[in-house]
Design brief:
Layout: H1 3-26, E1 32-38, E2 41-47, E3 53-58, E4 63-69, E5 72-78, H2 84-87, E6 97-100, E7 105-111
Antiparallel strand pairs: 1-2, 1-7, 3-4, 4-5, 6-7
Length: about 120
């Protein structure tokens, strides 16, 4: 590498990083919605774009308390032996799922974004 190659790299890398950052900041935000299923039936649809709210749904073993908002969702409290559902924590992407087998509850996130991949 000569002096001109190094100079080109020094100027191009920051410019490319700025362009990448601008794409990331101006990308279209998708409206995320969480569907709560009980025995493969949608029992609740939650818009995740608003403020955090608490929801209660009836599971197989009892009530399941869900906290959702600000683009994420989690099970806060449920009736089961080991409380595995509430230990899963927040999910915020469409490829993540909360599965609460003792209560037969599944929570999936969907979005209106038709892209197969994002940055």
């Amino acid at each position: 590498m000569n002096k001109n190659d190094k100079l080109l790299i020094v100027f191009l890398v920051p410019i490319l990083l700025i362009i990448l950052l601008l794409f990331k900041l101006t990308s279209v935000k998708s409206n995320k919605v969480a569907n709560v299923y009980y025995e493969n039936q949608v029992i609740l649809t939650i818009d995740l774009s608003g403020e955090e709210q608490d929801y209660n749904v009836k599971g197989y073993n009892g009530n399941v308390k869900i906290k959702a908002g600000n683009g994420k969702i989690k099970v806060v409290e449920e009736t089961s032996e080991k409380h595995l559902c509430s230990k899963q924590g927040y999910i915020k992407e469409s490829y993540e799922t909360i599965v609460c087998l003792p209560n037969k509850i599944v929570i999936k996130i969907t979005s209106n974004n038709d892209l197969d991949a994002t940055l």
